Amino acid sequence: MTKKTTRRNRLWPLFWTFCRIAPITFGGGYAMIPVLEREAVHKRRWIKQEDVADVLAVSQTIPGAVALNAASFIGYRVAGVAGAVAAVVGMLLPTFLIVIGLSALLLAFRDNPKAAAALQGMKPAVIAMIVYAGYRMAKTALVDKSTIALAAAAVLLLVLTPLSPILIIVCGALAGIGIGAWKHRHGIETSPRRYYADPDYFIGDGI
Predict the structure, then answer these.
(1) Residue 172: which of 191, 194, 146 has the closest Cα?
(2) 2, 28, 66, 152: least buried by Cβ within 10 Å?
(3) pLDDT of 98 higher than 80
(4) Distance from CA of residue 141 to its chain's centroid?
(5) How far is CA 139 from the centre of its chain?
């Protein structure tokens, strides 16, 4: 089977996987992290566990919704440009259809106490999913004292200052570059090594 054929065969799984993830991303893109991790890492083996933090970091630092950016990033790794398109369409289609349907029902059910109660019940569940996702990401992102210090500093800046999250992310990237350069000069390992037994593990180009 050629590489091109392999990519084509992965388009439908990409579309269908993100089509199933999209309807449960209540609360934004971060709420989908546990589901994305289960599907892309453990079930499909499209990315490694430690790559989840990288995917989300890149998705957060470029324009657009985190969920769509993550879908396009993973789709591109798996099947190139066509994979990115399939993943993004899969992520967009259910949400688009749900919004259209809810728009038609909004006026009829906006004052319904059961609907309001259901939304109130979803909010704590979404918070739990985000906290769980943060915990899982921390296991691969906080690898030494410097990364822990950067994370603590970022939290303090977010809580205590009006600085934009984008600016904090940029500062974190610059700090990471500086710390990495300092470690390199002193012969210190800058990051955990990542080994991939399968040389064709990543099908996409260039990432």
Answers:
(1) 146
(2) 2
(3) yes
(4) 13
(5) 15
